[in-house]
């Protein structure tokens, strides 16, 4: 009943707007009425269930137990035992994830993807411990952990292009960017930030071309990379061009959000520009009155821009109709 009411409301609006005529409206109404209501409902097997919740709880408890066990006895462990404390749970999580994904039930498959995400984090940690126990320099250890995590994350995503695997890929690439920034003798926030920006632009291009999925997760993660990169590069306040680049990237993301009708880009751009503005004002404007006026004017400009965009989108939709 509720579904038919919704269809009737849509048909009324479309008819009043001139999108469809009376004959088309009647055909749509007859077609929708002939579809059983249970076909439009979400399949029961796709819904979150008690078993899936128990699986998540079990994974969380096992992970907490492994962390607690290692933390309590870390100083007393031999080097091989420290490595095994992370490497063995990583392998077990990979195996558990693969086993869960053999079931047809979507809930088990989602739990398997979560297990793989945990395995990725454990593998990155195990790589860092290996570097530390073999006296590898810290800069090389971080870079090695980033490379290993990225390779594993890319492989898991190739097997299962799911939201957890995109999240894991983003985390691995962030670690890789920090490793590249740490590769010189002294850590360089500029290098790490520019690598993040480059990865963000590449990820956005792949997501928009349909080569990187799920698209919504990829848009959110790599859109964040794109605007966080220049912010990270200018975090110490001495690199003005990087701080200004935040607003350039933000404007580009807003333009892309409007063009693609993507809410993720819009939120990330506005949030990034707001944080960048606050940081810039407090780093370069010491006058309290000037700070207040700058914030007020900037806030008004942002609101005005949003209203302008909303007006333009409304007029564009009317023109297309």
What does this structure look like?
This protein is mainly α and about 325 residues long. It has twelve helices and no strands. The chain is flat, with a radius of gyration of 25 Å. The model is unreliable at about 1-5 and about 35-45 (pLDDT under 50).
Q: In short, what is this structure?
A:
With 321 residues, the protein is an all-alpha fold. It contains twelve helices and no strands.
Which key phrases capture this entry?
321 residues, mainly alpha, flat
Total of DSSP H or I helical runs spanning 4+ residues: 12
Helix content: over 70%
Distance from N terminus to C terminus (CA atoms, Å) equals 29 Å
| Number of E-type strands | 0
Q: What's the story with the biggest beta sheet?
A: none
Q: Topology as H/E string?
A: HHHHHHHHHHHH
Q: Percent of residues in beta strands? A: under 5%
* Class derived from helix and strand content: mainly alpha
Chain-averaged pLDDT: 81
Query: What's the gyration radius in Å?
Result: 25 Å
Extract low-pLDDT stretches.
Answer: 1-5, 37-45
Globular, elongated, flat, extended or rod-shaped: what is the shape?
Answer: flat
């Amino acid at each position: 009943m509720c579904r038919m009411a919704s269809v009737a409301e849509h048909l009324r609006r479309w008819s009043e707007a001139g999108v469809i005529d009376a004959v088309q409206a009647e055909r749509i109404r007859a077609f929708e009425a002939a579809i059983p209501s249970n076909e439009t409902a979400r399949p029961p097997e796709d819904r979150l269930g008690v078993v899936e919740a128990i699986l998540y709880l079990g994974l969380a408890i096992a992970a907490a137990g492994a962390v607690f066990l290692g933390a309590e006895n870390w100083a007393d462990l031999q080097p091989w035992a420290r490595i095994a404390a992370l490497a063995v749970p990583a392998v077990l999580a990979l195996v558990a994830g693969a086993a869960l994904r053999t079931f047809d039930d979507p809930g088990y498959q989602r739990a398997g993807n979560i297990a793989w995400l945990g395995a990725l984090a454990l593998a990155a940690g195990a790589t860092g411990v290996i570097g530390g126990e073999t006296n590898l320099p810290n800069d090389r250890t971080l870079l090695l952990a980033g490379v290993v995590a990225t390779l594993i994350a890319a492989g898991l995503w190739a097997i299962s292009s799911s939201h957890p695997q995109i999240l894991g890929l983003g985390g691995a690439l962030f670690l890789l960017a920090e490793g590249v920034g740490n590769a010189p003798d002294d850590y360089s926030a500029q290098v790490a930030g520019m690598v993040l920006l480059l990865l963000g632009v590449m990820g956005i291009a792949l997501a928009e071309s349909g080569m990187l999925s799920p698209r919504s997760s990829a848009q959110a993660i790599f859109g964040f990379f794109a605007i966080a990169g220049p912010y990270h590069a200018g975090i110490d306040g001495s690199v003005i061009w990087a701080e200004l680049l935040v607003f350039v990237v933000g404007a580009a993301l807003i333009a892309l959000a409007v063009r693609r009708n993507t809410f993720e880009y819009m939120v990330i751009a506005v949030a990034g520009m707001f944080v960048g503005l606050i940081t810039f004002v407090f780093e370069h404007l010491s006058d309290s009155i000037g700070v207040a006026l700058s914030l007020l004017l900037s806030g008004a400009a942002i609101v005005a821009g949003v209203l302008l965009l909303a007006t333009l989108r409304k007029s564009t939709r009317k023109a297309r109709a």
